[in-house]
Design a protein that fits this description.
This protein is 40% helix and 15% strand. With 295 residues, it is an alpha/beta fold. It binds NADP nicotinamide-adenine-dinucleotide phosphate (NAP).
Length: 295
């Protein structure tokens, strides 16, 4: 598998997003926790060295699965989490971005994952969902994370669900290493943010790289798209592999974290890095119609 950079750390370009390991709606435990742990172990045995998680997946469930499956962690495994959200008792996703809450959430991640330092903490903003001024000031939020970085509890800081202005401000304020926004062949709205990452050499870690499980299911839309299917047939690959290869071709610091609870899908996703799209494929795929999907 090829490598790229998350900050100054070398990681394989295909990592793993752990959100899909919780129960339905990312709420509560999965039906078969042992199967979820088998997926995690298989991922790491087959080269995954970048896992994306959050304490609010479950909540608590996914971090516990990661610890139970993988602790003590292999050398070089980078664990990335995100803070800034919480769940209510029905599973709704709510903002929780006060600086003190962010610090508490980092501590919870350290405890549940049983590590002394998080490799990467993403500040998950709600600036795209909430009216202007409804969130705590960005500088205060990043300041709280930078204090934890000073204390050695965080190695690197990233931002998530943000526009280009926030990325610029975050680069200036604390030197973020990555942006995690929704982006896929089905949703290219954040092209300007991707451009900014290229200009500054930041990693771009798209969430919903297959278009997401929500809103009708990205993989179903990918399979139905004639252009994606044509390229898949040409290379003897699946439509989801084409969608992931397209992302890899967009930027050398694009790091993938496709999420799955299935061993078969995991193997398929890991193999997306083993073939290349040519110029003819990329031109054809540029014409894929965007699909409004999401949470
Ligand atoms: N920062 C944020 O706000 C944020 C938001 C959402 C997600 N994330 C992170 O981003 C990661 C990726 O997002 P995601 O997992 O929601 O979306 P995704 O990777 O776009 O799609 C996941 C969906 O695709 C299916 N799938 C995966 N591989 C497949 C394959 N090879 N063939 C067919 N179907 C396949 C999964 O079902 P199966 O389980 O059946 O394979 C699941 O339904 C998450 O795991 C999470 O860590 C971050």
């Amino acid at each position: 598998m090829s490598t790229s950079y998350l900050g100054d750390k070398t990681v394989h370009r295909v990592g793993f997003g752990a959100m899909q390991l919780a129960g339905p709606g990312v709420f509560g435990p999965p039906a078969d926790p042992e199967a979820a742990k088998a997926v995690l172990r298989h991922a790491v045995e087959h080269g995954v060295d970048h896992i994306d998680t959050a304490q609010f997946y479950g909540p608590d469930v996914v971090n516990d699965l990661i610890r139970e499956a993988l602790h003590p962690y292999p050398e070089g495994l980078r664990l990335a989490t995100k803070v800034g959200a919480r769940r209510d008792d029905k599973g709704a996703w709510l903002p929780s971005g006060e600086p003190a809450a962010l610090k508490r959430q980092v501590e919870e991640n350290l405890r549940s994952l049983r590590v002394e330092r998080m490799d990467l903490v993403n500040l998950r903003r709600f600036e795209r969902e909430l009216p202007d001024g409804a969130e705590p000031p960005l500088a205060d939020q990043l300041g709280a994370l930078a204090e934890l970085r000073e204390e050695g509890k965080i190695d690197m800081i990233g931002v998530s669900n943000v526009g280009a202005d926030t990325v610029r401000a975050a680069i200036d304020a604390v030197g973020v290493v990555s942006v995690q926004n929704a982006y896929s062949i089905l949703n290219r709205a954040d092209e300007p943010v991707l451009r900014l990452c290229r200009e500054h050499g930041l990693a771009f870690v798209p969430f919903f790289p297959l278009g997401s499980a929500f809103g009708g299911g990205g993989p179903t839309h990918l399979a139905a798209d004639p252009r994606v299917s044509a390229v898949a047939r040409k290379h003897g690959r699946t439509p989801t592999q084409v969608a992931l290869a397209w992302l890899l071709a967009r930027y050398e610091r694009m790091l993938l974290i496709p999420g799955t609870s299935s061993l078969g899908h995991l193997d398929e996703n890991l193999a997306a890095d083993s073939f290349s799209l040519d110029q003819e494929d990329l031109s054809l795929l540029d014409a894929v119609e965007p699909v409004p999907l999401g949470a």
